[in-house]
């Protein structure tokens, strides 16, 4: 069983471009889905599933697997594209996204999609569930790690801080939270809606080990995830600075592309840009 | 308002607080018990607020220009009720009705009681309500300030941090939160239940101006409250170190005395101790 | 409760409901059987029974973990914390997080019991219950302690009159409301066995024991505690005792009331409700909850869909409660034996008028 | 502003747009009106209000519990706050709505435009078929659900101007269908009034009563047409106020027709169906059938397709009505 593959950064970058292309196709086909936040977290997901996490696509419910919780459940398309790329289900299924009866729901559903470890969609829930998994791992003396990907706007939910406090209190060093810090939420800039800064200071004041990376630099992402795994007695948060809509020039840093499906023409333009990248 | 003769002021506040303690113990004992621990820990804070800081009119609790106070730790209701009664919001006899149906005296605050602005009891609500009230005051360009007293265990609640974040966004320097940091929540000590430290850092990281005070030193509290806002454009929080059950030796710093009934003998001991302290203080 | 003190002496010696050993049934009964239909004079604390039951379950099953949000000494999960500290998780005053944690724990194979007051479980953590537990149908047990009006004088913010209404409207959740300490501990076993989300509503105080040790609890099954054909009283939880007293009082006036105890409010035992409706022609529901959304609504839905008969409701009539002794609250909020007796006479009047017969096609 | 002008302004608009329009008008007339949102002000179309009155619109971030508490505080300070929430976040803030708004009986309006299945493609977590159960269970709460753009505007104005106290306003995000738009246009332009707690009988009939509100009203009207074709005369009631329920109107249906079908884009547990069953069983038991989501999480998909899949249709309504009239007695489970 292969736990991790030695792969070049180039390969990972290719995977993430391919996954981004699939995101475009899915969303355009379904005329639904959250494109901006899916593109911003893509490199993180690829790093997790292709390099860092111990998973076996043939056994999505394998007990000793590392877990991943997509707390920003609206980025489902990104996770689906990566899971399909990794072989959890056939890539042709991607085009069923958001159709009635599909196993690819608008927000991720663990009962329907192989490889999805937790159902999410309403913001603020994921870190609690991830902390529960991490705690379960500790109780059962298992060595798996739990990763949770949170949106930045999501940090406005009080439940997140309940979980942050808890994970530190319980010394859950098998838990890594990653923040997709793309600076935009549904309605505008996070800093204008409800400022979450000073972000690192908040997590430090709540007892977490903190790191800050460029969320589109594959080497930095992987390095930080590895370092997180070595930290003892406290959970780690990686604040990943990202660009909403990353990879498609006309979507980058644009609030309106939070959940707007592209037209077929826009999709073609995006696919072309991604091919050239 | 009382800055002329600090020593006299402090003496007055101490006395008010002592009277309130006696009234509290009497009320709780008569009503078959209650939240001794948290009522005793908050009492000096409330005594200082109501007798030296808040701009209020006991004969007109709804007076427009008043400062507002919300007891977010609603289980401290009888502590607040004792202070309100002594301040003249209602006759002391009202406190004797606590056992009766339809009484305004309950284990948690009720709006039936004169001087109570908002009912509380479930933890983690008060700060948000206070934020709304402070925003309304700003909108109306009113000078009134909003004070809200939280328990420390209460800060486990995520909604507290939602409120904290919002207060900082709206630059509510007319809002003052006070945390009754007695170190004990219901089940156990806060640092065992859910570690809160570094507590001041958390508030700072959420954009608040923080000051610590000895929650049983009326002078210290008075100085802190008189200095709000600590920073222009920021909400202020006073972290008041207190002792749960303060003033009654066998209740002090004890997890067991969060709430409960007192025997007649315990009651007599408590009263005796408090009276003695009052004399010594004099 | 004042009304419950009218208990007569027990007819048979009370079996020790506080025993810890696992009961080995000697008779193979597939159906829940009707127990003794008379409350005994023995009062047993519901929360203590819960605390003990949980410890027993935890000893037998090492997958059980217990979470509490700083109310362990009230909910009595403190007993579990004392006995099995390694599987007790204190989450602090953070109910939303607690429910999420429980969801996470269950995905690793644990059977988490997340415990707090009913009011907080159903409202503070309402969306977490729906999204994180019920929607993925995780094996999480949600416990609402201090339910209904009787919460030790804590007042409106701590009285839970809506929890059943809310839990019932959330798909996939089984709602269990035990009537006494025996039914509670037996229900606990069944809940552990059942693979899926359950909401268990626990009362705070001590109540007379109705069920004897031979009673077998079955999820989704109502039991007839007293036979009669003049009308039915359908009761849940600690109000079952009140229903029995009312039936007894009415028996002295020559009326034979059927008393049906519904311990699983969802899924409700449609068969038992319809049988009662058809055979007795009138129903009074009795519960320590708002008459909106709980037992009353469940019964009203079943009968109007399947076998329309008049239904009268005894419960809290859509108002907030207040601090007060259980006795005072019982009278003021209409949960007394007298309230039930009055409701029975109202429903009988409607039955006599022939209402409900026209379309009751049975 | 006359009803006619209002009707012009919101013609062919989605429910939420009509709400936004009304909100702005009310804002101009009454400066106590303020808006509190949880990063959803534009989603609920409060953006025009926010643009015109930036000082009176508060986006407290993705923090719905806090939004509800803040609204309570604003009400304490003499404002009339409308809290704009996604449907499912009514569950998130349930306890704040209960303790801080309903218990002290504060004048706070909770507004959603995404309850039910209207966010069909958004995924199950963004459906909300439990919000009526939660809000109905809260004492002091009034629940109103309009069924057309015009009614949305009228209702919004009415509950802000005339109704003091906690209110839950359940508005559709999308357009209402023409049948309901037309029927309510006729009603209101014909001098009909909106009165909280008073159901409107839009069509008379003496065989069966159809009770609906919101998006389901046009389905009820459609069903009535279909029933008429087969000679069944159906009464259609617009139950715009879900709490307090107009029991007198329900009782009329009970005594004057042979059965009732309720329609709701909500779980059949906890909503209109439950409320009607409660009244019927207390009055004079006649059969009731409930059209709605039958206690399940729905799949994703466009709302119309979900309505088909889960039987929230005119056809299912007709079938239920006929079953009652045929004297069939069975659970629809």
Low-confidence stretches of chain B: none
Number of helices of chain D: 14
Strand order in the largest sheet of chain B: 1-2-3-5-4
Quickly give the structural class of chain D: alpha/beta
CATH fold category name of chain B: Rossmann fold
| Coarse shape of chain D | globular
Q: Could you tell me the strand content of chain D as a percent range?
A: 15-25%
DSSP strand count of chain B = 5
Return the domain count of chain D: 2
Helix content of chain D: 40-55%
CATH topology name of the largest domain in chain D, in short, is: Rossmann fold
| Fraction of helical residues of chain B | 40-55%
Spatial separation of the terminal alpha carbons of chain D = 48 Å
The ordered H/E elements of chain D are: HHEHEHEHHEHEHEHEEHEEHEHEHH
CATH architecture of the largest domain in chain D: 3-Layer(aba) Sandwich
Which structural class do you get from the secondary structure elements of chain B? alpha/beta
Distance between the termini of chain B: 24 Å
CATH homologous superfamily name of the largest domain in chain D? Thiamin diphosphate (ThDP)-binding fold, Pyr/PP domains
Largest sheet of chain D: 7 strands, mixed
Quaternary structure annotation: heterotetramer
Structural write-up:
The complex is a heterotetramer of chains A (277), B (282), C (362) and D (333). By secondary structure, chain A is of the alpha/beta class. Chain A is built from nine helices and seven strands. In chain A, α8 links the parallel β6 (209-214) and β7. With 282 residues, chain B is an alpha/beta fold. Chain B has one domain: Rossmann fold. In chain B, strands 1-2-3-5-4 form a five-stranded parallel β-sheet, with helices on both faces. The radius of gyration of chain B is 18 Å and the shape is globular. The model of chain B has no long low-confidence stretch (mean pLDDT 92). Chain C has two domains: 43-208, Rossmann fold; 223-351, Rossmann fold, CATH 3.40.50.920. Chain C contains 13 helices and 14 strands. In chain C, α4 (95-107) packs parallel to α6, α9 crosses α13 and α10 packs across α11. The relative contact order of chain D is 0.12. At the C-D interface, α5, α6, α7, α11 and β14 of C face α5, α6, α7, α12 and β12 of D.
Give a summary of the structure in a few sentences.
The complex is a heterotetramer of chains A (277), B (282), C (362) and D (333). With 282 residues, chain B is of the alpha/beta class. Chain B is 41% helix and 10% strand.
Keywords:
heterotetramer; B: about 280 residues; 9 helices; 5 strands; C: about 350 residues; alpha/beta; Rossmann fold; seven-stranded mixed beta sheet; disordered N terminus
Please outline the helices and strands.
The complex is a heterotetramer of chains A (277), B (282), C (362) and D (333).
Chain A: H1 9-30, H2 35-52, E1 67-70, H3 76-86, H4 126-139, E2 146-151, H5 158-169, E3 175-181, E4 184-185, E5 188-189, H6 190-193, H7 199-205, E6 209-214, H8 218-230, E7 236-241, H9 264-276
Parallel strand pairs in A: 1-2, 2-3, 3-7, 6-7
Antiparallel strand pairs in A: 4-5
Chain B: H1 6-30, H2 36-53, E1 68-71, H3 77-86, H4 126-139, E2 146-151, H5 158-169, E3 175-181, H6 190-193, H7 199-205, E4 209-214, H8 218-226, E5 236-241, H9 264-281
Parallel strand pairs in B: 1-2, 2-3, 3-5, 4-5
Helix pairs in contact in B: 1-2, 1-3, 1-9, 2-3, 2-8, 4-5
Chain C: E1 43-45, H1 46-60, E2 64-68, H2 72-75, H3 78-83, E3 88-90, H4 95-107, E4 111-117, H5 118-124, H6 126-134, E5 141-145, H7 163-169, E6 174-176, H8 181-193, E7 198-201, E8 206-208, E9 223-226, E10 231-235, H9 239-252, E11 257-261, E12 264-266, H10 270-280, E13 283-290, H11 295-306, E14 311-316, H12 326-332, H13 337-352
Parallel strand pairs in C: 2-3, 2-4, 4-5, 5-7, 6-7, 10-11, 10-13, 13-14
Antiparallel strand pairs in C: 1-8, 6-12, 9-11
């Amino acid at each position: 069983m292969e736990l991790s593959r030695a792969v070049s950064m180039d390969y990972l970058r290719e995977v993430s471009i391919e996954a981004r292309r699939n995101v475009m196709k899915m969303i355009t086909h379904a005329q639904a889905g959250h494109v901006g936040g899916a593109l911003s977290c893509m490199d993180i997901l690829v790093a997790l599933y292709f390099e860092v996490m111990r998973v076996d696509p043939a056994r999505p419910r394998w007990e000793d697997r590392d877990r991943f919780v997509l707390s920003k459940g609206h980025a489902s398309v990104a996770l689906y594209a990566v899971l399909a790329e990794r072989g959890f289900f056939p890539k042709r299924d991607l085009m069923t996204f958001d159709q009635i009866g599909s196993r690819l729901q608008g927000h991720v559903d663990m009962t329907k999609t192989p490889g999805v470890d937790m159902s999410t969609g309403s913001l603020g829930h994921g870190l609690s569930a991830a902390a529960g998994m991490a705690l379960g791992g500790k109780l059962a003396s298992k060595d798996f790690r739990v990763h949770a990907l949170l949106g930045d706007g999501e940090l406005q939910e009080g439940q997140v801080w309940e979980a942050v406090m808890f994970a530190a209190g319980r010394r859950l060093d098998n838990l890594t939270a990653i923040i997709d810090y793309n600076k935009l939420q549904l309605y505008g800039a996070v800093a204008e809606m409800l400022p979450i800064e000073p972000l690192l200071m908040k997590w430090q004041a709540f007892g977490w080990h903190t790191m800050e990376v460029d969320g589109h630099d594959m080497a930095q992402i992987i390095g930080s995830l590895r370092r997180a795994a070595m930290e003892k007695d406290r959970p780690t948060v990686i604040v990943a600075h990202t660009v909403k809509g990353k990879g498609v020039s006309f979507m980058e840093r644009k609030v309106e592309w939070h959940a707007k499906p592209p037209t077929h023409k826009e999709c073609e333009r995006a696919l072309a840009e991604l091919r050239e990248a | 308002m009382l800055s002329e003769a600090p020593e006299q002021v402090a003496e007055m506040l101490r006395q008010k607080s002592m009277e309130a303690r006696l009234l509290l113990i009497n009320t709780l004992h008569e009503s078959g018990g209650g939240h001794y621990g948290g009522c005793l820990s908050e009492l000096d804070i409330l005594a200082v607020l109501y007798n030296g800081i808040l701009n209020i009119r006991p004969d007109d609790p709804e007076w427009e220009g008043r400062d507002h106070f919300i007891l977010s730790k609603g289980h401290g209701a009888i502590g607040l009720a004792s202070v309100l009664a002594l301040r003249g919001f209602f006759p002391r006899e009202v406190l004797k009705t606590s056992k009766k149906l339809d009484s305004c005296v309950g284990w948690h605050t009720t709006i039936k009681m004169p001087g109570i602005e908002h009912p509380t009891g479930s933890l983690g609500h008060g700060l948000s309500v206070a934020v709304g009230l402070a925003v309304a005051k700003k909108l109306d360009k009113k000078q009134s300030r909003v004070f809200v007293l939280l328990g420390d265990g209460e800060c486990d609640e995520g909604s507290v941090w939602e409120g904290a974040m919002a207060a900082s966004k709206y630059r509510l320097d007319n809002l003052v939160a006070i945390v009754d940091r007695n170190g004990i929540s219901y089940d156990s000590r806060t640092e065992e239940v859910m570690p809160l430290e570094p507590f001041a850092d958390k508030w700072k990281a959420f954009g608040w101006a923080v000051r610590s005070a000895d929650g049983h030193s009326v002078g210290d509290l008075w100085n802190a409250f008189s200095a709000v806002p600590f920073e222009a454009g920021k909400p202020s929080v006073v972290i008041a170190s207190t002792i749960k059950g303060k003033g009654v030796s066998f209740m002090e710093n004890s997890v067991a005395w969060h709430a409960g009934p007192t025997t007649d003998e315990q009651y007599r001991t408590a009263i005796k101790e408090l009276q003695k302290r009052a004399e010594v203080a004099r | 409760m004042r009304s419950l003190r009218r208990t007569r002496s027990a007819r048979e010696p009370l079996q020790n409901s506080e025993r810890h050993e696992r009961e080995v049934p000697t008779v193979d009964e597939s159906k829940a059987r009707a127990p003794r239909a008379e409350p005994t004079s023995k009062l047993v604390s519901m929360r203590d029974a819960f605390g003990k039951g949980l410890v027993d379950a935890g000893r037998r099953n090492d997958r059980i973990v217990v979470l509490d949000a700083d109310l362990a000494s009230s909910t009595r999960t403190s007993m579990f914390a004392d006995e099995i500290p390694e599987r007790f998780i204190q989450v602090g005053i953070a109910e939303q997080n607690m429910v999420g944690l429980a969801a996470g724990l269950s995905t690793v194979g644990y059977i988490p019991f997340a415990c707090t007051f009913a009011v907080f479980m159903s409202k503070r953590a309402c969306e977490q219950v729906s999204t994180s537990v019920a929607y993925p149908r995780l094996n999480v047990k949600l416990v609402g302690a201090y339910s209904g009006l009787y919460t030790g004088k804590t007042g409106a913010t701590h009285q839970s009159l809506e929890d059943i209404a809310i839990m019932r409207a959330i798909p996939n959740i089984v709602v269990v409301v035990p009537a006494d300490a025996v039914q509670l501990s037996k229900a606990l076993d069944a809940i552990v066995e059942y693979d899926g989300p359950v909401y268990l509503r626990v009362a705070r105080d001590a109540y007379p024991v109705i069920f004897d040790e031979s009673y077998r609890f079955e999820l989704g099954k109502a039991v007839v505690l007293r036979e009669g054909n003049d009308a039915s009283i359908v009761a849940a939880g600690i109000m079952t005792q009140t229903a029995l007293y009312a039936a007894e009082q009415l028996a002295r006036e020559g009326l034979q009331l059927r008393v049906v105890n519904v311990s699983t409010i969802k899924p409700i035992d449609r068969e038992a409700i319809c049988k009662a409706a058809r055979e007795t022609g009138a129903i009074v529901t009795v519960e320590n909850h708002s008459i909106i959304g709980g037992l009353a609504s469940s019964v009203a839905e079943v009968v109007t869909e399947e076998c329309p008969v008049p239904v009268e409701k005894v419960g809290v009539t859509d108002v907030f409660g207040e601090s007060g002794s259980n006795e005072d609250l019982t009278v003021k909020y209409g949960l007394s034996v007298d309230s039930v007796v009055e409701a029975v006479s109202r429903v009988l009047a409607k039955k006599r008028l022939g209402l409900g017969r026209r379309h009751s096609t049975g | 502003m006359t009803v006619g002008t209002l009707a012009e302004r919101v013609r062919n608009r989605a429910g939420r747009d009509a709400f936004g329009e009304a909100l702005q008008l009310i804002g101009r007339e009454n400066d106590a009106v303020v808006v509190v949102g949880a990063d959803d002000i534009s989603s609920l179309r409060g953006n025009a209000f926010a643009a015109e009155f930036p000082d009176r619109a508060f986006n407290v971030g993705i923090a719905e519990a806090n939004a509800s508490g803040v609204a309570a505080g604003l009400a304490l300070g003499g404002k009339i706050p409308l809290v704009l929430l996604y449907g499912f976040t009514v569950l998130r803030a349930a306890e704040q709505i209960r303790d801080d708004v309903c218990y002290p009986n504060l004048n706070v309006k909770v507004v959603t435009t995404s309850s039910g299945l209207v966010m069909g493609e958004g995924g199950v977590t963004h459906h909300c078929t439990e919000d009526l159960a939660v809000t109905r269970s809260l004492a002091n709460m009034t629940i109103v659900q309009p069924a057309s753009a015009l009614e949305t505007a009228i209702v919004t104005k009415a509950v802000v101007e005339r109704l003091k106290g906690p209110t839950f306003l359940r508005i559709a995000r999308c357009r209402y269908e023409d049948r309901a738009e037309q029927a309510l246009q006729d009603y209101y332009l014909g001098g009909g009034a909106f009165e909280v707690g008073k159901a409107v009988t839009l069509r008379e009939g003496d065989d069966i009563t159809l009770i609906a509100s919101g998006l389901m009203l046009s389905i009820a009207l459609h069903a009535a047409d279909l029933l008429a074709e087969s000679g069944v005369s159906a009464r259609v009631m617009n139950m715009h106020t879900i709490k307090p329920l107009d029991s007198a109107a329900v009782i009329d249906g009970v005594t004057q027709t042979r059965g009732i079908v309720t329609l709701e884009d909500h779980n059949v547990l906890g909503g209109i169906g439950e409320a009607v069953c409660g009244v019927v069983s207390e009055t004079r038991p006649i059969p009731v059938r409930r059209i709605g989501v039958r206690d399940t999480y729905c799949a994703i998909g466009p709302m119309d397709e979900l309505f088909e899949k889960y039987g929230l249709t005119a056809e299912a309504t007709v079938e239920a009505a006929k079953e009652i009239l045929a004297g069939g007695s069975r659970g629809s489970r």
